[in-house]
């Protein structure tokens, strides 16, 4: 597995086009892999996420079975004169270091949603996005244990979790009769590992729905001030 970081040049027209369409960005990400088995396997898939940094920079993160070649993205939406391009590094060392009881800072953009019927007489079920902060928080906390972690508590007893950048996206999808509506939320917090194997599965396969549209990628970092 590899973790890749790509700095998006938001001043470029090509970048703005990709940022406006999760489907276009997904296609651009997969174009970095020459063969299907390079981006999707039974035990892993390619996940991506867009983060806006405090300095307003937009960073594309990709977790994938093999390292991508993002030359096309540099030409379309990056910094062609920069010597950096993109950075990919092996992810297996972090995956292998996970142990029960560890605490990690985490970030996630997800599609908090539920499946149900629109009315009692609806012929089939469909997916509905959770739109309130409370619903979106409960969506994550209710799935944590089955995915190998819990949300750590702060000194005041409250969960160490912030939900932000809550949005409703509408975009066109090829073959769709109308625009796609996608509810997303971003989460920052601290988690505690309860089952390393389950958590490794989340880190390599994602969590929740809409993974092709920039949702589901959970990333870890050392807790600030931790030992």
From TrEMBL:
InterPro entries: CRISPR-assoc_prot_Cse3. This is Type I-E CRISPR-associated protein Cas6/Cse3/CasE. It comes from the Bacteria. Transmembrane segments: none annotated. CDD domains: Cas6_I-E. It comes from Micromonospora endophytica. SUPFAM superfamilies: CRISPR-associated protein (SSF117987). The gene is cas6e. Pfam families: CRISPR_assoc.
């Amino acid at each position: 597995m590899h973790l890749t970081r790509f700095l998006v040049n938001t001043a470029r027209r090509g970048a703005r086009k990709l940022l406006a369409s999760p489907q276009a960005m997904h296609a651009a990400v997969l174009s970095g892999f020459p063969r299907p088995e390079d981006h999707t396997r039974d035990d892993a898939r390619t996940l991506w996420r867009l983060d806006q940094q405090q300095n307003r920079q937009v960073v594309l993160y990709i977790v994938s079975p093999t390292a991508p070649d993002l030359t096309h993205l540099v030409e379309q939406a990056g910094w062609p004169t920069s010597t950096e391009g993109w950075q990919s590094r092996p992810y297996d060392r972090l995956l292998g270091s996970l142990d029960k009881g560890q605490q990690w800072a985490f970030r996630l953009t997800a599609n908090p949603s539920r499946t149900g019927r629109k009315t009692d007489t609806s012929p089939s079920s469909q997916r509905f996005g959770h739109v309130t902060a409370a619903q979106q928080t409960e969506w994550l906390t209710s799935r944590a244990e089955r995915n190998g972690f819990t949300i750590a508590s702060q000194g005041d007893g409250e969960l160490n979790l912030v939900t932000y950048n809550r949005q409703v996206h509408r975009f066109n999808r090829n073959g769709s009769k109308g625009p796609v509506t996608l509810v997303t939320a971003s989460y920052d917090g601290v988690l505690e590992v309860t089952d390393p194997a389950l958590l490794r599965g989340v880190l390599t396969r994602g969590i929740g729905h809409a993974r092709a549209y920039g949702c589901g990628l959970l990333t870890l970092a050392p807790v600030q001030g931790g030992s």
